[in-house]
Amino acid sequence: MAVCARLCGVGQSRRCRRRQRHNQQDQGSDSDMDDEEGVRIVGKTQAVTGGPENPSAAAGPSVAHEATAECGRANVRLSYGQSASTGPPNPQSLLDLPPELLVGIFSSLPGTELPNLALVCKTFRQILNTETIWRRRCTEEFGMREDLRKIEVVGVSSRELYAKLLHPYRHILGLWQPDIGPYGGLLNVVVDGLFILGWMYLPPHDPRVEDPMRRRPLFRIHMLESNKAAVECMYGHKGPHKGDVQTGKKDEFSTKCNQTDHHRMPGGRQEEFRTWLEEEWGRTLEDIFHEHMQELILMKFIYTSQYDNCLTYRRIYLPPRLPSDLLQPGLFKGTYGSHGLEIIMLSFHGPRARATKLTGDPNVPAGQLTLDVDLNRPVHLPDLEHQRSVEELSRLVLGVHEEAQQEAQSPDVAPQGVAAGDGALAPQGAAAADGGGAEGLELAMEAQSESPQPGPSSSSSSASSEAQPFVLPLGVMARNEVYPRTCKMCFYGTGLIAGHGFTSPERTPGLFILFDEDRFGFIWLELKSFSLYSRLTDQLAHAYAPNMERFEAMLRNMQSWTS
């Protein structure tokens, strides 16, 4: 806007030009602009008389046209068949530029600045009515791929779409976590065609952890039937119906259904439960023989169905990637025993990797830190024969666990790696737990590469390190027997377990296994259980945290919601 003000001849720059002209007149000298104009007039005169001083006199009238065309090749065309003399040759303000050039300039500005620009003058206000400007803003700011000319035919202009739909609801775009008690969830609000859609992301049916995510629409906002945005609830099986979206606090909004009778089914609660069970678990209650699992499923249905899509959502971010990260942070889906599949967020904090629940269960609710991995404490696996022994695995991991507890009491003690077969802790050159994440991780993995067992050779990419055979110990339960049989590296970590209602929470030792860039696992020693995690591959817009400080503040808030 400051640049526009100077070019328009308003503000401080206008007074500066007046003062400059006044000083030049006092000194009895002409400005450079007047000199250039004099030369141009002389040139035109010579061209008309055909003097020998201008050999290209016949081409004189096309020089300005060629210069104008050269400027227009950058973004916009400056001429629609007009002559070269249209407009002053040296424009002093934006008002001197051709309208089509102003359209190109204005369309490159953020849409939030255009209303202020319309206040400058009547000409600007008229130019800002051009649909080309608002089509470009809708496309560049909100990623609309739909041909906006189609909606203009039915009476909704691109300017109205921007001003009444996209701009007012821009704050709800991105990732959100619904407040559904311990269960949580993952909502992604996106611009989808001519709609703003709220998609609830659901894990695949248990135990198919590597299947793609499922999506269910919860609400949509559009302008198809009137000149103002309409909110519709998509919950239930009777089609869209009236709803509402309310934005109050920062990074928080609420949805409300105004016709909850659309959520009811003719067969009553029994039919609703059977339908929900088929969608949520992909099976019937008769197919689930485990009595405890039946109780958990019924409990979740009763708890979640009472909201009727009247929910409050809080914003969440994906973590930014740092050069020191072991792998790409982000969202993963993992197996959690009889609770089924849940969604977690993997992030890196110096020498530690942490997994936070986005969906939870009555034991460990959403928002809690489910895994905490110390990347400065690598664990070297023995050969396949010894890997099948849960006692051998427990000896290795518990050895590192005791060392970690001793270090917590004596911070000056450096962490040690543990190698299989010697029954003792062997120094591996790892950095201290309070050291830098990148340096500590690099030293830890260099130590692994020097051990007899095959292991990773650098911290730059897990995919470039060598793989070693892996097999689950006998007696360790796994929801999915199909798991990777090679791994890149292993680290000591702890997992959070608790009783029903998040009672007596406790962090217990376990083994973090990195299989590849998109899969990892965790062995819960106390539970003798194995969880397999697979990356979400969906493209999520408006989702990444602007910086690490903002992301860590979001994590702290998330844990306080369910603590």
Automatic annotation (TrEMBL):
GO biological-process terms attached to the record: protein ubiquitination; SCF-dependent proteasomal ubiquitin-dependent protein catabolic process
PROSITE patterns the UniProt entry points to: FBOX
Region forming the signal peptide: none
Cellular component GO terms held in the UniProt record: SCF ubiquitin ligase complex
Positions of the UniProt region annotated as Disordered: 15-38, 403-466
Keyword Secreted tagged: no
Segments of skewed composition (Low complexity): 419-433, 440-466
Keywords: Ubl conjugation pathway
Pathway note: Protein modification; protein ubiquitination
Record SUPFAM superfamilies: F-box domain
Database matches in Pfam families: Cyclin_D1_bind, F-box-like
PANTHER family, A to Z: F-BOX FAMILY PROTEIN, F-BOX ONLY PROTEIN 31
Designated name of the protein: F-box only protein 31
Organism: Salmo salar (Atlantic salmon)
Lineage: Eukaryota, Metazoa, Chordata, Craniata, Vertebrata
Gene of this entry: LOC106561277
